[in-house]
Amino acid sequence: MNSFLNVKQRRAGVLVSLPSIVSEHSFECGDIYSLYPLSNWAKDIGFSIIQLLPLNDTGFGYSPYSAISAFAIDPLYISLHLLGLPIRSRKREIKTLHNNPNRVRSIKIKAIREHFETNEKEVLKETSLFLQQQPWCYSYVTFRVLYESFEGKNWWDWPKEFQDPYKAKDFIFTEKREEAMFWVYLQKIAYDQLSAVKLHLEDNGLYLKGDMPILTARNSCDVWEHPEYFLMDLQAGAPPDQFSQTGQTWGFPVLNWEVLQKNHYAWWKDRLTYLEHFFHLYRIDHVIGMYRIWAIPKEDKTALKGWFHPQFGIETSEFLKVGLDPKFIESIGLIHEFKPNHYIFYWDFWKEESYQSLPEETKANLFPLSQLHISEEEKHWREAGEAIIEIFETFSSMVPCAEDLGSVPSFIRDSLYERQMIGIDVVRWTKSFTTGQFIDEDHYRENAISVLSTHDTSLVMDWWKNEGDQEEKLQFFFDRLGKPRPETEDQVLESLLDFAFQTKSIFSIQLFQDLALGVPDVLQNPEKHRINLPGTSDKDNWTYRFPILIEDFAEDFQRNFTLRKFVNSSGRN
Question: CA dihedral in degrees (130, 135, 137, 139; nearest 10)?
Fold first, then answer.
């Protein structure tokens, strides 16, 4: 495949959390080798896209969306088998649905370290060349060695001399050069293995889709080296909605787009250039954040005191013009001076008792101020977001796909539509704005990906059994189509998959667990097979392991036949 232009055709695919896909040659969790038997199965079914969740190094953490580097691949994913190391898991059978990533990573690193030390003279030349070609590795490796030394402690709590990236790099690559080069070697192996997978998929007519988180952990190499790229006194999140009355706080620092722009978005360009070594398409996580993001003071535990950033705000003079003192309004907890003489209104401020107790005349003058610059703000946000996305498209030939879920303002939805950006439509949420009912297959957005579930939702069978109105679902997915009502879980899942593939969406990419026809535990206990439950501890998430080896899963004739039929009948083969 010399061109990415062929990608934009009607296609089907599978989304996997790589550590969950265990193969015969994996060491206790899925790794880069797992993509070979997975791609063989996908090709046999008629799938032509394999989508991965982020592969970034999570350090001692768990979530790939809270990584310690925006570039580095987690050593967890290195295949010992591909490296030629004869180390096998203790048992072939998968006994539990969870792996221990820190334990597995530690064992792998120990084995690769022994290999590195034994063959140091041979591998050092290639490792040094890789370091020259990938300058981001200098800062990542320095950070990683120090991060290990200080057992994951936040970088701002390190000794002062190591808080200066330039001094730290000089120290690590001088005083601890062998250790530093080992960590470079780990990245070189991961690069070689993953880029080889991309070529293998190309040879077999398949495309690999990656994931680019928009935000970065505060305790990360990128924030440590370039704090100027981030607004360190703020954290990103989401405003209150029907799912959370207090909103979401994510802890990640807010991007400083002004500084990034002055630097010609070099950090983003480097990220996208590196990703292109591995992927044909990529998912832009939280694309809304390219336009605006909900910014919250970093110490806050809820998102109630946040605001959309960037924002003009209401000036002091605009309060005074209607006879109001902004300092008084701030003192009763309705607004906040986020920069000198510029104020934002808190979310749902009109519901506060302090607002309700104001004289009616005061309320009549105050409330309109909260709406004063909305049209100007939206125009500014749209122009700013489109400028960022447009320049991103010049950095890479990969096909971008927008994660545009949640409460997407109409101006952003219109912008993405006009830019022909591929979005995501989750079947359970894709309903008519007027009637609130499910929409039929032909009324899905063509320029989108239809999915039954995402890594952040329950599996589709959990949704079917435990969420929403059962009768409404039966009428739409069965009665409407003249299908007999289901008697088994397999029949439910088959109908839902058939619907998702039949949608008008250009791509239909399904979570691996949602393709598990004939796997009793996944169908009967889908809640046990979820990847992530937002708002809960990382340690309770991101450790999921599918109960069947991918090679064994791929041998099921009936499942393969059924999936192949759906792909063919929907014109996605």
Answer: 160
